[in-house]
Amino acid sequence: MANFSKPRVPRFSAEVYQNTHLPEGGREVNAIVTVTATGGGTTGETPVAGFASPSPSGVSPTAAPDAAVVIMVDSSGSMEYPPVKMRNARDATAAAIDTLRDGVAFAVVSGTHQAKEIYPGGGRLAVADATTRGQAKEALRKISASGGTAIGTWLRLADKLLASSDAAIRHGILLTDGRNEHEGPKELLATLEACAGRFTCDARGVGTDWEVKEVTGIASALLGTADIVADPAGLAADFTGMMESVMGKEIADVSLRLWTPLGAEVRFVKQVAPTVEDLTGRRTEAGPRAGDYPTGSWGDESRDYHVCVRVPHAEVGQEMLAARVSLVLPAPGGSPPQVLAQGLVRAVWTDDLVASTAINEQVAHYTGQAELARVIQQGLELRKSGDLDGATAKLGRAVQLASRSGNDDTAKLLAKVVDVVDAAAGTVRLKAKVSAEAQMTLETRSTKTVRVKK
Question: Quick one: 256 exposed, middle or buried, by C-beta within 10 A (0-12, 13-18, 19+)?
């Protein structure tokens, strides 16, 4: 079993990258905000709300980890074809259970056209230790493949179970091998809307008979990750990696707060690394001219956000604060939220053409990465619909962008769908035959980005 210690109080920092100069009449300000959380906890520092103070030695005291996890395993009839798929799913779940730290609350759910608690049962969560981990792995033997698929029922049960815990980190891991055929899209959407903000969820599709948009949509709505595990033999390693990531989370419910001055308006807020995720529509008002955008749970990690603000007209020589970006954590009892880090986005009007037309390297890079994700998805849709010329143009542009930005992983995935004639020019030919695995892997991972090369 992996050995994890109690996470320590994280420190947050925010760095802003932008060209502050606008030409005469310029109204749009773009900035990349890099947010970094690192494990901390030294003697005498002020603890983040919701965390125990570190011990005098600087090492966190031993205490039950503040996390709860529900693993949802697809056990519909299709999981028996081939039989190794269900066996690998059981083994993967057992590996994830072994990765749980002592003290973490957890449960295992079997998902078909309905959801059933496999362990511990009774509408409750177990507390991880050597005994309960062993019992949970033994209970996996009860899972047999039968019935249909209604993913919304699995998520609703997970939400109910996680709601019984007061843990700060509430997380789900969901595995499916098929389409959500026993539930309408509107039902699943309603479930996702009800669960959003209550827990995060990583979603995985095993094999190639599932729907990419369903799995990525679940992860997107619940601020988790999505991926394909084409070969069931890879499930154990993937589940272990997911659970290790969950065990590394230190703080939950962090929001990116954007304040803008009178007359300015937010055009969009997007996470652009490690994946592209548009957060614009998830804004909740947070006082006069301020809005919060959810970012979910954090461990030791760094993420990049693209903020675009439209500012009022100003004359050459004027300067203004276009936006104040803060990382905030809700405080208990209606107290003001705790500000974890802050950065400023500025605007300065100039008649210096060189200064005003320079494009910040970070902004240019991530604008290209967002376009890369978009044209891959568009190209694959056009290919499915039979528009081969349109698909060739879009996927050619994707190859060009991947090459230009150094996104080698995406370039390799694209090369399984198109023959690359000239990467720099974006000249490609569609392959006559493309495996379902190659196409689904490219679509699922299309939003993964690379950072600017230093």
Answer: buried
